[in-house]
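Convert to structure. Protein one:
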Amino acid sequence: MTATILFIRHAAHAHLDVRLSGRLPGVPLSEAGLAQAAALGAALVGQGITRIECSPLTRTCQTAQAIADACGLPAPTMVDALVEIDMGDWTGAAFGTLHGPAWDAWNNRRGTARIPGGETMAEAQARIVGHIERLARDADGQVIALVSHSDMIRAGVAHVLGLSLDNLLRFDIAPASVSRAVVGDWGAKLLSLNERMC
């Protein structure tokens, strides 16, 4: 049983690199992000995608819908397992205001740190990995696009590579990028990382 997973980060939004959006509602793609999503969809035509799933947040839904429209696929399915990490007390905070011991721990010890009022990286990883493993069992031979968030994709990729969560920031996941993995009952293998297709 083997499925090909395309980990796709949502396209750009107005808070990108300015504010920690987390699960803040009502954060749509920016004008540039809408163009990125349309270009990404066009680039994915002919890739054999059989279905698209996404985090329930607006920016991921918009990105996923652009891909579905370009590829002639049914509307994406929203999946809670793909939602952004619960950023707790930091939700909506400007990056310039985030400092102190908890913030330092989050950035240096992702394997054990907990966001104040939010999740640990391990909890977030368990959500996405559990979902990927179910897909591998139930979607043999399919190519499935999962539109999610940078740290959620990092968590999935780290699992595939056997990389410690403490080393999660050693690779980038850019907006509108694609990372590919093959997942089966035998394990998993990363095929590409952080491809910029548009």
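Protein two, convert as well:
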Amino acid sequence: MIIGIIPARYGSTRFPGKPLADIGGKTMIQRVMEQAGQAQSLDKIIVATDDERIAEVVVRLGGEAVMTRTDHPSGTDRCWEAYSRFVTDGQKAASSTDYIINIQGDEPFIDPEQIDELAAILDGTVELATQMASVDSAEMLHDPKEAKIVVNTRNEVVYFSRSAIPYLWGLDPAVWHQHHAYRRHVGLYAYRADILEQITQLPPSPLEQAESLEQLRWLEAGYRIKLVETRHQTPSIDSPGDIEKALRAIQ
């Protein structure tokens, strides 16, 4: 079974109430649900929220909402609580045959094909998976908000960094992207259920704290993260000003 979970918390420092924001006549959470609902690979879709107002909108739209705690440090932790509540109430342990795909609640225009691309590799041996895309500009390569990925020959993550790695010795950093196939992280995650349970018990790691990238905690603990390349570039909404930009981007 592959379960799509959409974490949707109300409290956001930069954009409180973001899941309920109006985007072209629909709430953000409605748009995410509709896009996820078009994916062919998901057996079930759940919205994991900490706010009754969001849950009410989801249920009114015919969706399923699971109430979760307000103090989760990440969407990964919220996904685990939602999955735990779904499989139980204590009826079975986290299964190595179940996968959870964390569908970002602030990407109202996510392409359903993107979800199916990730789901296609979930064969039971994959512990964790995420997506990557090509870096096509120096601006993107050197933007610390974009996590870059070092990839091995098995399409697994070697390292994530906010810095441009590898360092190309003897070349102007402005042209590095023209001389090496750099990849950036696209934040759609898949977790095998038993692995999701394990990684949510890990303490913060030194590499994670240095780069402020949660996924480094998993690498540092020895977990393997499989990569799928995607061509889809879907805009996320981090602030109210991003809404108009996103609408223009998809027109």
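The two ends are 34 Å apart (CA to CA). The chain has a mean pLDDT of 91.
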